Model the fold of this input.
Amino acid sequence: MRSLADPDLEAQLTDRILPSRARIPEDPPAGDYVVIDVTHFSTTVVELFENGAEYVHVTEERGDEHAFAEEHPKAKIGGGSSEEYTPTEGYDFFNSPTWVQDVDVTGRPTALTSTNGGAAVTDLRLASGDDVHVYVGTLANARAVADHLDGAEKPTYLVAAGSKGKPSPEDTVGAVVIGRHVYGDSPTDEERDLYRQIAKLGKAPKYEQKADIRLNDLVEYDLRFSESAVVPKLDGQKLYDVGSE
Done:
């Protein structure tokens, strides 16, 4: 088993990880792109599918969800959160894997975006041609995404969405974990514990000053490793779960 000290593995990951949304090329080369926004867009998308959503429509701008809901009366839509960490007026949920557990999305279309992960999905969609496929990954579905892409002819690029154009530790960790699965070098239990600790320490001190739901998002959902078989893939503006294909 290789480790990150292996220069070949390090070179492969360095070549294929985009350390923030800001590093997405204006003309992305052909390949499979996995957008990783662990806290919380990617994990929320996975949980929407785990709870039976038909698809997730990724809006270009926050606010576009209302027009989508008018066209799709059964839809549940996500937006911003209040200071009390409840959905802002007119929305059914916000970008929280915890909150969506109590929203009835079974068989329903859903819609949301986010300033980092959702925006990265849109950036890739608008900049790319038919030779670019976009997926959403997080720690919870790391192995499932890698297994789905196993044997793909095109290269796999890992977009660690980051925050405000800068890298975020949890997204970098997510990219490394998915990348290691892609290259057949799954992390050991000890390495997973270390990765989890890095991701947790990057966010927990901040979330401890906020509502309990944010710490719950992190501990109960964001930091799970490969527990989900969901593989969200973009088709037009919509993400569909292709994990069973």
Q: What stands out?
A: The first strand starts at residue 17 and ends at 18. The chain has a mean pLDDT of 94. Strands lie at 17-18, 31-36, 55-58, 76-79, 93-94, 109-112, 132-137, 156-160, 232-235, 238-241. The chain has eight helices and ten strands.
